[in-house]
Amino acid sequence: MLSRALPPLIVAACLLAGWEAYCRLAGVSPLILPAPSAVLRALVLNRAEIAVHAGATLQVAAIGFSASVAVALAVSVALHFLPRAERALMPLFVASQTVPLVALAPLMILWFGFGLLPKVLLVILVTFFPMLLTLLAGYRQTPPALRELLASMGAGRGQVFLRACLPAARPSFLSGLRVSATYAIVATIFAEYAGARRGLGIYILQAKNTFRPDLVLAAVLVSAGLTLALLALIGGLARLTARGPEARHD
Amino acid sequence: MTEAGLDLSGLTIRAGARVLVEDLSMTLPTTGITALIGPSGCGKSTVLRWLAGILPDTLAAEGQARIGGRPLRLPDPAIGFQPQADALFPWLTIAQNAALGLRVAGLSAPAARARVAPLFPAFGLAGTEAMYPAELSGGMRQRAAFLRTMVRDGQFLLLDEPFSALDAVTRLRLQGWLLARLAERPRSVLLVTHDLHEATSLADRILVMAARPGRIRAEIAVPIPPSARSEHSLAPLRETLKTLLLEDPPT
């Protein structure tokens, strides 16, 4: 565990040390680029306020991401059993990913107000597609021998799906889940940026408007922490659902 | 043919306009091993897949099959199919893999477990119940696949080159082991193989398929009882089979 975490920690420490040294030695104004120590100080001093905003962001991200997982699973099952629907809908799903968030986020606020709904919808829109793609690819990668064996035993399409396709898609789905998790917090912040009462997005906007880049970076640090926490949660889920020898080695 | 045997008649399988198998007929008695041999691509596995009820949608088949006088269902509970690869589910334990057919048939997990558990020692798998396929050797995996096929208790077993992926020693051991299992609980086996040694040392009779389109070209009984078979006694039969196969142009 430690041997895996050590290399990125060393790289991060080197980058922070370089950044700190540059700020101190070059005399950069803290209004332009605050040193890491200043960002840390701002984070500690404003921890209560940042925690409230981070909590709001986490709530939206968690609800949106959970809903997105459910939607991706349901849609993937439907498309797996209805290949014609997949052919008809996939171009629309692809097109939905080309819509710039910067245009969509304000429209969502305009249509659905400042509440939870527009932000959750935005998170679903951003995170749903990677999961859908990886699920469908996972179902397709089910070894034909397993499907045929089940069919020869009299299993119907539903049983073949539940006993072979769904478990076979697990590794692929976990990859999609990890990719989507990295988007979830960013999408939430973007939605809050477009309009919200609480959340890291609106906090960053206010900090920027008051010329406090240290607070902006403190909020960015927290958002990165939230994403890492979400990834750790998925890692736990992966270990919990592991079957086969990998379950013993984890 | 015995009363409850499997009768297949007039099986024709097409891939579009191409005829893969034409007017193929055969009978399987209720016990014994029938080997199905023929050049690559002659349709041996395709016939097996049709009998197992897993012919791909891209192929069209017509023909009739009856088991003991009743029409064959596709798939039929009286038939167990074992594909070329062991097809064990990597995320299931060996006990769960062995019980898979019973679970598909609707048995509860505890009932299926109770049915397979006593069979593990006879299949040389005692102690592997909680292990996963990746933790077993090739021979043990194949025995686990046999256990999964045999525990469903179908009278007819369709084996698609079940020993082809094994090393020579494991293959010989497993062939002897299969004969012992069949002696304990006699069944009818249709064995698809490329290996003339395997066909002649295991089978009671050998069906030779011709290619393009696939059809039964010859049916040869193996007149020597399994206990009396040796390299020397089987040599003439192998020569006959080799000649038959070499006469067929490659597909």
UniProtKB/TrEMBL annotation, chain A:
Coiled-coil regions listed in the entry: none
Record carries keyword Phosphoprotein: no
Gene Ontology cellular component list: plasma membrane
Subcellular location: Cell membrane
Stretches assigned to the ABC transmembrane type-1 domain: 54-234
UniProt KW Membrane keyword: yes
UniProt keyword terms in alphabetical order: Cell membrane, Membrane, Transmembrane, Transmembrane helix, Transport
Transmembrane portions of the chain: 58-82, 89-114, 120-139, 176-195, 215-238
Major location (coarse): membrane
GO biological process: transmembrane transport
Origin superkingdom: Bacteria
Membrane topology of this protein: Multi-pass membrane protein
Alphabetical list of Pfam families matching this protein: BPD_transp_1 (PF00528)
InterPro entries attached to this UniProt entry: MetI-like (IPR000515), MetI-like_sf (IPR035906)
Family: Belongs to the binding-protein-dependent transport system permease family.
Stated name of the protein: ABC transporter permease
Organism expressing this protein natively: Paenirhodobacter hankyongi
TrEMBL record, chain B:
SMART domains reported in the protein's UniProt record: AAA
Swiss-Prot/TrEMBL keywords: ATP-binding, Nucleotide-binding, Transport
PROSITE patterns: ABC_TRANSPORTER_1, ABC_TRANSPORTER_2
GO molecular function: ATP binding; ATP hydrolysis activity
InterPro entries the record matches: AAA+_ATPase, ABC_transporter-like_ATP-bd, ABC_transporter-like_CS, ABC_transporter_ATP-bind, P-loop_NTPase
Residue ranges of domain ABC transporter in the record: 6-236
A Pfam family matched in the record: ABC_tran
The family this protein is said to belong to: Belongs to the ABC transporter superfamily.
Official protein name in the record: ABC transporter ATP-binding protein
